[in-house]
Amino acid sequence: MSLQEDRNTGQWDYNEICMGMGLTCAFPGLINNYHQYIISFAEDEAGELYFMSTGVPSATSPSGVVYKLVDPSR
To answer: What are phi and psi of 39, to 5 degrees?
Structure first.
């Protein structure tokens, strides 16, 4: 999930983020082939945020991916 502040009202808007192959993510045109189990977060020296995820719920998974969180307003 994600939260984004509405600057006009000061309220936080809640949004679902789909990661995986479940019916929740079956929206037309949505790329939903992400690894669904987030196992770690990180921040680099420049303040960029990353997370690691795998296809199985284990840090000993033989494969996985690292995603970089990007603010589209920048």
So the answer is: -110, -15
Contact present, 54 and 64 (Cβ < 8 Å): yes
Measured CA distances, 47 to 24, 31, 39, 65, 68 (Å): 31, 27, 19, 20, 11
Quote the pLDDT of residue 57.
82
Question: Which residue, among 29, 28, 47, 50, has the nearest Cα to 39 in the 3D structure?
Answer: 50
| pTM, rounded to two decimals | 0.54
What's the Cα-to-Cα distance from 52 to each of 57, 62, 66, 67, 68, rounded to whole Å?
12, 13, 4, 6, 9
Written as one letter, the residue type at 56 is: V
Three-state secondary-structure class, residue 60: coil
